[in-house]
Design goal:
The structure is a homodimer of 449-residue chains.
Chain A (H helix, E strand, L loop, with lengths): L18 E7 L6 E7 L2 E5 L1 E3 L12 H6 L5 E3 L1 H6 L3 H6 L3 H5 L5 E3 L3 H7 L1 E5 L4 E4 L6 E4 L1 H11 L3 E3 L72 H22 L7 E6 L5 H11 L6 E4 L8 H11 L9 E3 L5 H9 L4 E3 L2 H7 L2 E2 L6 E2 L19 H4 L4 H9 L4 H27 L3 H6 L1 H4 L3
């Protein structure tokens, strides 16, 4: 039992809206099988959350998302704050009722999107002032505002508003340190300063090509135009300290702790000392879960691995650990074995919309001419509406060539099911204490690059 | 029993791939309840066919279309001929297997789209030469080619390749009569010369605003830029004679009469004498069904009514009568009472994609601000996935404002269900010999404009 200011202890679980039950620990790694319970039901961990940025998992009805095996989805505070606005969602009965999804929902804090999508006006200790990417309206987002918006949306799990420094893996491109925006500085040049995770947002790159699991460093909107920085450690230190101060404010501002669980976020970039410092401070709060943020914002697999393997053990074992914005099958396997319980990523739906289908041996691009007369389904072992429904690669390719909506719909459904089946097998591997299942059935997760 | 050239009689029903069973006649009108049987099952008439232009009812899986009550769908020969090409569809096992719809399918002949979408190069007695709207490739479509393509696609009901003159209702704008395209003549100026029905094609106006049931003359792509014509009756005469000659060639070229039923099409514009002449000649063929073409290509309700009420009785009572490209609820009711059995229209899906929802009292535009906080569903009596699923107008409006795919999906589903429920009630009215059901439940169908 760890004492924290205010005398609340980690054991006071009944106080929390969200609770974690550890069911089984793996014998050969830190992987753990568990179950998280929220006011809208439970979900099994390790879990993968499909992303429904604007209160909709793109192209799919909630009953279909449910049928694909998803037990919890993520929605984006930034988008819903701008359109239609959280007061309207609250008035309509909250996010669950409004979007017709009565299972658990997690909302992020909005920080990541403020920096990747909006026109930042000012960043300071109080918060961030930015212009809406929709209509140019000047809006301020602070820890208090993020909490109020998330309280109004009503998700089961809400995230702290944090400051997310850039990855050390792209240290040479660096980031902007300033408080005021330099005159004439392009919007993108300020990317990479704040916000957690990557790829959580379905709409930041609507016209982008599908993401493929190849890259050297993967460039997110947060990092692709980052400007030089003199003192990376100083920036990490500032972000960490601010993350901790902002978490204090989030905890104080959170008005529905008995209905919504607030997760703290550990920052620190790729600086392991900074990660340790941040984890120590963030976990001082008796929160129902903790996240590793600022990962997969441009760095490669090895850097992600280093940070996750270092940070996950610093988080309490009896609270779910959430690795924000990750990712590909191999990343997930590594993180699960480091003790991570929750994941989210836009890959299934974003790539699905672009005609890129996940399979156990890797992604395929359906627009490729070689699929024109391919009478096989995407994955013979898959039971999704596309594969189980008998839609051939030939037909799916036609849908994409003809720009038929049904193409994105079916491949998004398939990709979501792909990740749900993958997590199902990961949970099975932990339960049976036998990872050969993953070796055998998911070569994409274990192959060398 | 009527003798036709070749000695085949109307009673030789067992020869046909498609048969019609008359179940009940209305006592106060020519409405009739029936059932059409095809190699892929039966459908109840009067029937409304959703349109799946490119082998997909836009945004919906075939199982969903089935669930909405559709028993037969329409697909477009022109589009599939160009992409992916009928040989590929044939190689993949035919349209039913390829698109995963194992119930009846009807394909049109391609004529309407050739004139509304392509760049016509030459029109002659043999057929039409045009440039593909996709890649500019020069393509010839003749009665024989249309039959071969439709034989390869493998629909249960295939349509004759016909010449469709413009409606007399827009006689003052007229049409181009020429055989060769005059140099420098804009593409649209040749519209309105040939092809049956209107609005069968989901893609001819992808960016169009939703169609509303108001208009004076409704302008289709075929008529909106028609040029002056000197002699409308002469054009109708030519089209009629050609339609009859081309039908002869279609009948001869049709290679799968035991697996696919060929429907003849009656043209004649708004000239009732021409309609009579055409009907007499077209029905000389022992075909399993007959269509009224060239209606709803720009003329108003009264003109459509005049033509349909005149022409339907000229078609054999023991074969299904199909009114191509119609239409709104009031048009359908009028035509059913004139003895029509089959309808198709893109309205449910095209308007659905544009945020226009059909209700028993008329269409509503969901983008209208007054729906922002409207917590009611589209139609309290509807059992579609949108209404039955509890999606409010507020949420649906949000989906359209945020350009989320789920908006078009849900409203298309609702609109298809709207028309299926409407036809269900029409069949009920005939069966119970009580039209007060329509008066009571479908005010949109009986209200004056």
């Amino acid at each position: 039992m760890v004492s924290v200011p205010g005398g609340i202890s980690y054991n006071a679980r009944l106080m929390h809206a969200v609770t974690y039950q550890l069911k089984q620990k793996d014998s050969e790694s830190s992987a753990q099988l568990g179950r998280v319970t929220t006011p809208h039901g439970s979900f099994d961990t390790p879990a993968f959350m499909p992303v429904g940025t604007q209160a909709s998992v793109k192209g799919l009805q909630p009953t279909q998302v449910d049928g694909l095996g998803a037990q919890i989805i993520l929605s984006n505070t930034y988008h819903l704050m701008l359109r239609p606005g959280s007061p309207l969602v609250k008035e309509m009965g909250g996010l669950h009722k409004w979007m017709r999804w009565d299972k658990p929902i997690l909302t992020d804090s909005g920080g990541f999107q403020v920096f990747s999508l909006s026109d930042i006006n000012r960043i300071g200790e109080d918060g961030v002032t930015f212009r809406s990417h929709l209509d140019g309206q000047l809006i301020e987002l602070t820890p208090e505002r993020s909490m109020r918006v998330q309280n109004e949306l009503g998700a089961d799990i809400i995230m702290a508003f944090d400051d997310c420094p850039p990855s050390g893996g792209i240290r040479d491109s660096g980031v902007w340190l300033g408080k005021e925006r330099p005159a004439g500085m392009p919007q993108e040049d300020r990317a990479g300063v704040l916000g957690s995770g990557s790829g959580q947002d379905e709409d930041d790159e609507p016209e982008s090509r599908p993401q493929t699991p190849d890259p050297g460093p993967r460039l997110s909107p947060m990092t692709r135009h980052a400007v030089a920085v003199e003192d990376y450690p100083a920036r990490v230190k500032l972000a960490n300290e601010r993350t901790v101060r902002w978490l204090d404010r989030c905890v104080k501002a959170h008005e529905r702790p008995d209905e919504q669980g607030l997760f703290g976020i550990v920052q620190g970039g790729t600086d392991l000392v900074a990660r340790t410092w941040c984890a120590q401070h963030v976990t001082q709060h008796d929160l129902p879960g903790f996240a590793i943020g600022g990962v997969a914002v441009g760095e490669g697999y090895d850097e992600i691995k280093k940070v996750v393997q270092h940070t996950a053990p610093l988080l309490p074992e009896d609270r779910p650990r959430y690795l924000m914005g990750v990712g590909y099958e191999r990343d997930i396997l590594m993180a699960v074995r480091a003790g991570v319980d929750m994941f989210d990523c836009v890959l299934p739906t974003r790539n699905g919309r672009n005609g890129c289908a996940f399979t156990p041996t890797g992604q395929i691009r359906l627009k490729n001419a070689r699929f024109a007369e391919d009478s096989s389904v995407l994955d013979e072992d898959c039971d999704c509406p596309a594969c189980g429904g008998g839609f051939t690669r030939s037909y799916l390719r036609h849908l994409f060539m003809a720009q038929e909506m049904l193409g994105p719909i079916l491949v998004s459904a398939h990709n979501i099911r792909h990740f749900q089946r993958y997590l199902l097998d990961i949970r099975r591997a932990i339960a049976q204490n036998d990872w050969s299942l993953i070796q055998r059935c998911w070569p994409v997760a274990v192959k060398r690059r």
